[in-house]
Design a protein that fits this description.
CATH architecture: Orthogonal Bundle
GO molecular function: DNA binding
Radius of gyration: 11 Å
Helix content: 40-55%
Keywords: DNA-binding
Order of helices and strands: EHHHHE
Number of helices: 4
CATH superfamily: lambda repressor-like DNA-binding domains
Number of strands: 2
Pfam families: HTH_3 (PF01381)
Largest sheet: 2 strands, antiparallel
Low-confidence stretches: none
Protein name: Helix-turn-helix transcriptional regulator
Distance between the termini: 9 Å
Strand order of the largest sheet: 1-2
InterPro entries: Cro/C1-type_HTH, Lambda_DNA-bd_dom_sf
Mean pLDDT: 95
Number of domains: 1
CATH topology: 434 Repressor (Amino-terminal Domain)
Shape: globular
Length: 67
């Protein structure tokens, strides 16, 4: 499973799901799905999300076993 820290990173910046969606160019529903692990973003989208936060991809996403 691909884990992510999107919710934490958004909170640190005081961004809503809609704010992130607008910055990345995806729908708010897509952000919700990624945060809830219902959708795994493409590699291209994952890099775009990391770039939007101004961090490396491994600071946003991590591959690992289920918790």
């Amino acid at each position: 499973m691909i884990w992510n820290r999107i919710k934490v990173l958004r909170a640190e910046r005081d961004w809503t799901q809609a704010d992130l969606a607008d910055r990345v160019g995806i729908s708010r529903q897509a952000v919700i799905s990624i945060e809830k692990y219902k959708y795994t973003p493409s590699l291209e989208l994952a890099f775009k999300i990391a770039e939007t936060f101004g961090v490396s991809i491994d600071e946003v996403f991590k591959y690992g076993e289920e918790k």
